[in-house]
Each structure stands twice: as C-alpha cells, then as structure tokens.
Write a structure and sequence with these properties.
Elements: H1 12-55, H2 60-73, E1 82-83, E2 96-101, E3 104-118, E4 121-134
Antiparallel strand pairs: 1-3, 2-3, 3-4
Helix pairs in contact: 1-2
C-alpha cells in the first residue's frame, strides 16, 4: 500500500489568520459606517437648504440656524464636528460654509471626524461638500 505524503488543504494557523483578517475588516467597517451615515445626513441637509435658497435668499445667520435645526432633527451632534484643517476659507476654521460670490452663493460643510480604533491608533476622515447656488433669476 502506498501512502500519499502530499498534504492538501489549509492548516489551522492559516484558517485563524484568515478569520482574524476578515474580523478586523468587519470591525473597521462597523466603526466607520456611522460616520458616513452622518455625512450623508449632513449632505442631504445642505442640499435641502440649497434647493430652498434657489427660490428665497437667506442670510448667513438664517442659514446657520436652519442647518442646526435640520441636523438636530437627524440627531447629528454639531459640537462633535471639528472644522477641517485644510478648510474652504483658510482664515476661518468653520464647519459650515456660506460665502456669497458675485451672483452666486456657496453653501456646504467642511469638517473632520476622528475615530479611535484601538490603543493609540485613530482614523481621521475629512469631509468637504460645497454646493453653488446661482442667484441670478
């Protein structure tokens, strides 16, 4: 009788490594997904206000107040949103962007989110969304 000496299949160590790798990917995905859901909520609030501004001109103070109300409805904590270091307006570090340029108005958000992963490792995600509204009718 002849025995086959070539081993086929995965070893237990390789299986543990593969499970660990996919487990880590799932862990990272579960940490990052809420941040992107929050971003899409903020983006939809900006789009809603931009559509409203096409028909009616509003001031910067009104824009900020309406943004706070819309984000409060969507359970977005505005205090956690830190202005991006490489923001739209270099002189001011603001989260919400409102700028009137000639016959158009730019509105949007520019912020960073820091997500603690494990130990001293953090993910830093920067979001920047600007929408231009043409004021000429």
């Amino acid at each position: 009788m002849k025995l086959n000496k070539n081993q086929k299949g995965m070893s237990t160590i390789v299986l543990i490594v593969i499970i660990g790798f996919f487990g880590y990917l799932i862990f990272v995905g579960l940490k990052i997904t809420p941040v992107y859901m929050e971003y899409f909520s903020i983006k939809s609030a900006v789009d809603g206000l931009a559509d409203k501004m096409k028909t009616k001109q509003i001031s910067k103070a009104q824009y900020m107040e309406l943004m706070r109300k819309r984000l409060n409805i969507n359970y977005v904590n505005i205090k956690e949103l830190e202005p991006s270091r490489d923001g739209c307006d270099k002189s001011k570090k603001e989260t919400f962007h409102y700028k009137t340029v000639k016959k158009s108005t730019e509105v949007g958000v520019n912020y960073e989110k820091r997500i603690p992963m494990m130990g001293n490792i953090d993910f830093l995600i920067s979001f920047d969304y600007i929408r231009t509204i043409d004021s000429s009718k």
